[in-house]
Design a protein that fits this description.
Layout lengths: L1 E5 L7 H12 L6 E3 L18 H12 L2 E6 L8 H8 L12 E6 L7 H13 L9 E4 L15 H21 L4
Length: about 180
Protein backbone atom coordinates (compact mmCIF):
# COMPACT_ATOMS: atom_id res chain seq x y z
CA UNK A 1 0.00 0.00 0.00
CA UNK A 2 1.23 3.47 -0.90
CA UNK A 3 0.06 6.23 1.40
CA UNK A 4 -0.62 9.45 -0.52
CA UNK A 5 -0.45 12.64 1.53
CA UNK A 6 -1.74 15.94 0.16
CA UNK A 7 -0.10 19.06 1.55
CA UNK A 8 -3.31 21.05 1.24
CA UNK A 9 -6.47 20.80 3.30
CA UNK A 10 -8.63 22.19 0.49
CA UNK A 11 -11.17 19.69 -0.85
CA UNK A 12 -10.64 20.96 -4.42
CA UNK A 13 -6.84 21.17 -4.15
CA UNK A 14 -4.88 20.54 -7.32
CA UNK A 15 -2.42 18.52 -5.24
CA UNK A 16 -5.18 16.29 -3.87
CA UNK A 17 -6.43 15.83 -7.44
CA UNK A 18 -2.91 14.86 -8.52
CA UNK A 19 -2.92 12.07 -5.93
CA UNK A 20 -6.33 10.93 -7.17
CA UNK A 21 -4.94 10.90 -10.74
CA UNK A 22 -2.01 8.76 -9.59
CA UNK A 23 -4.44 6.31 -7.99
CA UNK A 24 -6.26 6.03 -11.32
CA UNK A 25 -3.11 5.27 -13.32
CA UNK A 26 -1.72 2.77 -10.80
CA UNK A 27 -1.60 -0.89 -11.72
CA UNK A 28 -4.43 -2.97 -10.22
CA UNK A 29 -2.08 -4.55 -7.67
CA UNK A 30 -0.88 -1.15 -6.42
CA UNK A 31 -3.12 0.29 -3.73
CA UNK A 32 -2.99 4.07 -3.30
CA UNK A 33 -4.62 5.26 -0.07
CA UNK A 34 -5.10 9.02 0.27
CA UNK A 35 -4.54 10.18 3.84
CA UNK A 36 -7.00 12.61 5.31
CA UNK A 37 -6.41 14.16 8.69
CA UNK A 38 -3.35 16.40 8.72
CA UNK A 39 -5.63 19.06 10.17
CA UNK A 40 -6.27 16.81 13.17
CA UNK A 41 -2.64 16.76 14.27
CA UNK A 42 -1.81 19.15 17.12
CA UNK A 43 1.07 21.57 16.84
CA UNK A 44 4.34 19.68 17.18
CA UNK A 45 5.90 19.92 20.62
CA UNK A 46 8.92 17.70 21.38
CA UNK A 47 8.14 17.88 25.10
CA UNK A 48 4.87 15.99 24.71
CA UNK A 49 5.58 12.44 25.85
CA UNK A 50 2.06 11.05 26.31
CA UNK A 51 0.56 9.39 23.23
CA UNK A 52 -1.82 11.57 21.25
CA UNK A 53 -4.33 9.41 19.34
CA UNK A 54 -4.22 11.44 16.11
CA UNK A 55 -0.42 11.47 16.10
CA UNK A 56 -0.25 7.76 16.91
CA UNK A 57 -2.68 7.04 14.07
CA UNK A 58 -0.68 9.15 11.60
CA UNK A 59 2.60 7.48 12.57
CA UNK A 60 1.05 4.02 12.29
CA UNK A 61 -0.30 4.79 8.81
CA UNK A 62 3.21 5.85 7.72
CA UNK A 63 4.76 2.77 9.35
CA UNK A 64 2.26 0.40 7.70
CA UNK A 65 2.73 1.88 4.23
CA UNK A 66 5.16 0.30 1.78
CA UNK A 67 5.85 3.77 0.38
CA UNK A 68 4.62 7.35 0.66
CA UNK A 69 3.92 9.96 -1.96
CA UNK A 70 3.49 13.62 -1.08
CA UNK A 71 1.88 16.25 -3.29
CA UNK A 72 1.99 19.79 -2.00
CA UNK A 73 1.28 23.33 -3.03
CA UNK A 74 3.67 26.18 -2.29
CA UNK A 75 2.65 28.69 0.36
CA UNK A 76 4.81 31.80 0.76
CA UNK A 77 7.73 30.05 -1.00
CA UNK A 78 7.58 27.03 1.28
CA UNK A 79 5.75 23.90 2.38
CA UNK A 80 2.33 24.53 3.95
CA UNK A 81 2.52 24.59 7.74
CA UNK A 82 0.14 21.66 8.14
CA UNK A 83 2.44 19.37 6.13
CA UNK A 84 5.60 20.57 7.86
CA UNK A 85 3.91 20.06 11.23
CA UNK A 86 3.03 16.47 10.28
CA UNK A 87 6.60 15.77 9.21
CA UNK A 88 7.95 17.30 12.42
CA UNK A 89 6.01 14.65 14.39
CA UNK A 90 8.15 12.01 12.62
CA UNK A 91 11.56 13.49 13.41
CA UNK A 92 12.38 11.51 16.55
CA UNK A 93 10.55 8.28 15.81
CA UNK A 94 11.85 7.19 12.40
CA UNK A 95 8.70 6.08 10.56
CA UNK A 96 10.08 7.52 7.31
CA UNK A 97 13.64 6.23 7.78
CA UNK A 98 14.54 4.15 4.67
CA UNK A 99 10.89 4.37 3.51
CA UNK A 100 10.54 4.77 -0.28
CA UNK A 101 8.97 8.17 -0.94
CA UNK A 102 8.14 10.49 -3.80
CA UNK A 103 7.48 14.22 -3.69
CA UNK A 104 5.43 16.40 -6.02
CA UNK A 105 4.71 20.10 -5.96
CA UNK A 106 2.17 21.69 -8.25
CA UNK A 107 1.39 25.34 -8.63
CA UNK A 108 -0.51 27.66 -10.95
CA UNK A 109 2.74 29.62 -11.19
CA UNK A 110 5.36 28.90 -13.83
CA UNK A 111 7.83 28.00 -11.10
CA UNK A 112 5.74 24.91 -10.32
CA UNK A 113 6.14 25.32 -6.59
CA UNK A 114 9.87 24.67 -6.88
CA UNK A 115 10.64 26.30 -3.53
CA UNK A 116 8.11 24.14 -1.71
CA UNK A 117 9.49 21.07 -3.44
CA UNK A 118 13.06 21.99 -2.48
CA UNK A 119 11.96 22.50 1.13
CA UNK A 120 10.05 19.22 1.19
CA UNK A 121 12.99 17.33 -0.30
CA UNK A 122 15.31 18.80 2.32
CA UNK A 123 12.99 17.68 5.12
CA UNK A 124 12.53 14.22 3.59
CA UNK A 125 16.29 13.89 3.34
CA UNK A 126 16.67 14.80 7.01
CA UNK A 127 14.12 12.10 7.84
CA UNK A 128 16.26 9.47 6.09
CA UNK A 129 13.84 8.57 3.32
CA UNK A 130 14.67 6.36 0.35
CA UNK A 131 14.50 8.52 -2.79
CA UNK A 132 15.52 7.71 -6.36
CA UNK A 133 16.46 9.70 -9.43
CA UNK A 134 12.80 10.07 -10.43
CA UNK A 135 11.38 10.73 -6.96
CA UNK A 136 10.55 14.41 -7.37
CA UNK A 137 8.37 16.37 -9.75
CA UNK A 138 7.46 20.03 -10.00
CA UNK A 139 4.36 20.77 -12.08
CA UNK A 140 4.05 24.36 -13.30
CA UNK A 141 0.87 26.01 -14.55
CA UNK A 142 -1.26 23.24 -13.04
CA UNK A 143 -4.57 25.04 -13.63
CA UNK A 144 -4.08 24.67 -17.40
CA UNK A 145 -3.23 20.98 -17.03
CA UNK A 146 -6.44 20.04 -15.20
CA UNK A 147 -10.09 20.18 -16.10
CA UNK A 148 -12.53 22.15 -13.99
CA UNK A 149 -13.43 18.87 -12.26
CA UNK A 150 -9.78 18.24 -11.31
CA UNK A 151 -8.89 15.59 -13.89
CA UNK A 152 -5.46 15.77 -15.52
CA UNK A 153 -5.93 16.79 -19.17
CA UNK A 154 -2.28 17.25 -20.15
CA UNK A 155 -0.79 13.99 -21.43
CA UNK A 156 2.76 15.07 -20.54
CA UNK A 157 1.65 15.58 -16.92
CA UNK A 158 0.06 12.12 -16.81
CA UNK A 159 3.27 10.67 -18.28
CA UNK A 160 5.40 12.47 -15.67
CA UNK A 161 3.15 11.16 -12.87
CA UNK A 162 3.52 7.63 -14.27
CA UNK A 163 7.32 7.97 -14.15
CA UNK A 164 7.16 9.09 -10.49
CA UNK A 165 4.80 6.22 -9.60
CA UNK A 166 6.88 3.62 -11.47
CA UNK A 167 10.04 4.78 -9.70
CA UNK A 168 8.34 4.56 -6.31
CA UNK A 169 6.91 1.10 -6.97
CA UNK A 170 10.31 -0.12 -8.21
CA UNK A 171 11.99 1.05 -5.01
CA UNK A 172 9.27 -0.60 -2.94
CA UNK A 173 9.68 -3.92 -4.81
CA UNK A 174 13.47 -3.82 -4.50
CA UNK A 175 13.31 -3.04 -0.78
CA UNK A 176 10.42 -5.09 0.55
CA UNK A 177 7.39 -7.14 -0.38
CA UNK A 178 5.02 -5.18 -2.61
CA UNK A 179 1.71 -3.99 -1.47
Amino acid sequence: MILAIPGSLTATSSNLNILKAIAKIAAPNVVIDIFQGLDKLPHFNPEIKDPIPTVTYFKQRIKDADGVIFSTPEYAFGVPGVLKNALDWLVFTGELNEKPVAAISASPLYSGGDKALASLLLTLSALGTNMGTNSALSIADIKNKMSSSGAIIASETTSALQVILNDLVTRIVLGSPLI
